[in-house]
Each structure stands twice: as C-alpha cells, then as structure tokens.
Amino acid sequence: MLPNEQRDPLRPTGRVFYLKERTFNMLKKDLLLKNPLRLLGHDSDDIITEGDFGVILARAGVGKTAIGVQLAINSQLRNQNVLHIALNDPVQKVCLWYDEVLRNLISQHDISQEARLWDIILPHRFIMTFKVERFSVPILEERLNDLIEQEIFVPRMLLVDGFPFKNESRQFLEDLKTLAKKLGFHVWFTMNIHRHNQPAPDGFPPEFSRFEDLFEVAIQLIPEGKEVFVRPLKGIGGKSQSPGLSLNPSTLLFHVPDDPLT
Questions:
Q1: In a domain, 228, yes or no
Q2: Intra-chain end-to-end CA distance of the chain, in Å
Q3: Using CA atoms, how far apart are residues 28 and 3, in angstroms rounded to an integer?
Q4: Residue 241: its pLDDT value, please?
Q5: What percent of the chain has pLDDT over 90?
Q6: How many other CB atoms sit within 10 Å of the CB of residue 104?
Q7: Sequence-separated (6 or more) residues with CB below 8 Å from residue 201
C-alpha cells in the first residue's frame, strides 16, 4: 500500500482468505485423521482395495449405518466416489444420515465450514435404492454401466446397507466380488447379528462365519450398558476379546477412550 493510500475497510484482504483456507484445510485434515480405520489402529486410510469386502456387524439399532456413513464421508473427503446402496430405505432417509453424521463430525469446529464441506462431499456421492427382492448383481451391473459409460459417476467404494445375509446369499456375494474386481471398487456391508446366538466354532458370530472367507475386514459393535464398544474381528489387528474403542452414545461417532465424550 502506498503511504497516502487508504484501504477500503469493507474489502477483504488476501491475508483473510489465506487464514480461512488454512483453517478449512486444518479442519479437513483433522476429520481425515479421525477416520475410523485409523482410530482402530490401521496406519493408512485404505485397508481394503479393489474387489475386497468389509463388514460392520451389530444388532439392530446399534449404529452400523452411522459407522458406514463415516467410512463413506472419509472416502469422499479424499475425492473418492462412493455409491451408497440402500435396501428398503428412501433416498431422503439416507441423506439425513449423511447430514447428521457430518454435522456431528464438525460440531467441535467452526460450523460455518459445513457448507464448504458439503460442496466437497456431494459430487462424490451417489445414492441408489432397491427393494431387497429386486436387488441382484446383473441389475446393479446394468445400472453401474449406465453411470460409467455416460461419465456420470465411477464409484471406488460401495456401501451396501440392509443386505439380508441368508444361506443362499453366497452366490450373490461371489458374483458381486467378481464385479468389484472388474470395475475397480471395494464394498462395505452392514450385517445384522442376533444377541442370543452362540459364536460359531471359529469364534465369529454365526451370521458372519458362513461368509467369513469372502471378507477381508470385519468390525463388530458390542453394546454394554450405555456404551457401544468396537471390536475388530478380522483384518485390523486380528480378533480381540477386550474392546477399547467405543462410540459416543449421543452421536454414534468413534470415541478415543482417553478423550472426554462431547
């Protein structure tokens, strides 16, 4: 500025923009460091790659979808496309999950950054809904090819929420694994398990045990009183009988044990 020049007080300076950008980048970095996989002890953001399966196991209503959405948001923050497949849930309900989880993630930060985070996330998310009885690999492949060929959306992660794992599901899972390798994405599932079922001989919940060989990673949510503990079953440090990481009971976000709940 020249000695006799007066600065317009209403005109923002480059310094202000720089500080805002730095603050936003710090927020984004902080959210990435809170990636559930990192909090579980994995040393990078990706633990499953093209063609791999991961699964979040819990009883109904414990927080499987919230954890899946956290994993999806983390991928989106890294500019990776996520296809969310909801079975029997409408698009509006899925959108509410993302809205709630993102708001909880940044609740301890400057809320004015929320709109900008949405600008980053939304282009990297596509939601498909199916009725369970109409969900098949050929139909999914047809719809994916339409999106890819028209250059509308190329997913790198699928989140399948609400899939009913049954005895006859193995062929579906094998076919989906083949498709995932072919099109270059990995898949996370949510899986309902039941409280009173005894573990299978391999120590896994019986609902998971019959498909265990198809999955590279498995995470179990275990409610105890008012707490929900997180136990890696497969692929992240192996099986552990003493869960330490837990979920914040009000937000269903991952909670580091030595930090106070907010």
A1: yes
A2: 46
A3: 40
A4: 44
A5: 46
A6: 17
A7: 209
In a domain, 43, yes or no: yes
Q: Which residue has the higher pLDDT, 15 or 216?
A: 216
The pTM of the full predicted model, rounded to 2 decimals, is 0.83
Q: Which residue has the tokens 């709630």?
A: 100
The total domain count for the chain is: 1
Could you tell me the CATH number of the domain that includes residue 213? 3.40.50.300
Q: How many CA atoms lie within 13 A of 190 on its CB side?
A: 25
Distance CA 52, CA 215 (A): 7
Rg (CA), the chain: 21
Q: Is 246 left (phi over 0), alpha (psi -120 to 50) or beta?
A: beta
Q: For the chain, where are the alpha helices, taking DSSP H only?
A: 14-33, 36-39, 64-77, 91-105, 114-121, 137-149, 170-183, 206-209
Residue ranges of alpha helices (H) inside 60-212 are: 64-77, 91-105, 114-121, 137-149, 170-183, 206-209
Question: Both tokens of residue 245?
Answer: 């990481």
> Within a domain: residue 215?
yes
- pLDDT of 152 strictly over 80: yes
Angle formed by the axes of helices 170-183 and 137-149, nearest 10°? 20
In a domain, 260, yes or no: no
**How far apart (Å, rounded) are the C-alpha atoms in residues 138 and 159?**
17
- For residue 100, give its domain range: 14-255
Phi-psi region of 51 (alpha: psi -120 to 50; beta: other; left: phi over 0): left
User: How far is it, in rounded angstroms, from Cα 159 to Cα 177?
Assistant: 13
CB 204 within 8 A of CB 166: no
Torsion angle (degrees, nearest 10) of CA 234, 54, 181, 89: 160
